[in-house]
Amino acid sequence: MMIVFTNTLKIRKGHVHKLLERMDEGTEELAKAEGFLGTRILRTRQMADEEEVVIQTLWRSEKYLKQWTKSEAFRRSHRGDRPDWILGFKLNSYEVIHWLPPAVDKESTSDSLAE
């Protein structure tokens, strides 16, 4: 059963770019992790004093998520103290109970997300 793991972070306004830079350091190893199916990073659109970022990772099963969190690559990507611009976080794990992949369309491109 597929699993979505989320990390919801409260970030000091104007510092989301620092989170993305920090995440770029471990992206290659995460992409190669066995059972990893993808990631999505979301940012709330209307918050006054802080920003909320939700990092979603999709895994083939909980077994692969646990393998990743016990790996040396995971430890390297999460080393060091939490920066002061991360105001808080909440972790959650969800079972995927329904999945509807997009229909294949000749005119669809990956650029369509930028619209």
From TrEMBL:
MF terms (GO), sorted A to Z: oxidoreductase activity
Keywords: Oxidoreductase
EC numbers: 1.14.99.48
Superkingdom of origin: Bacteria
InterPro entries: ABM_dom, Dimeric_a/b-barrel, Heme-degrading_MO
Organism in which the protein naturally occurs: Desmospora profundinema
Keyword Oxidoreductase included in the entry's annotation: yes
Lineage, broadest ranks: Bacteria, Bacillati, Bacillota, Bacilli, Bacillales
Group of enzyme by EC: oxidoreductase
Protein name: Heme oxygenase (Staphylobilin-producing)
Xref: PANTHER family: HEME OXYGENASE (STAPHYLOBILIN-PRODUCING) 1 (PTHR34474:SF4), SIGNAL TRANSDUCTION PROTEIN TRAP (PTHR34474)
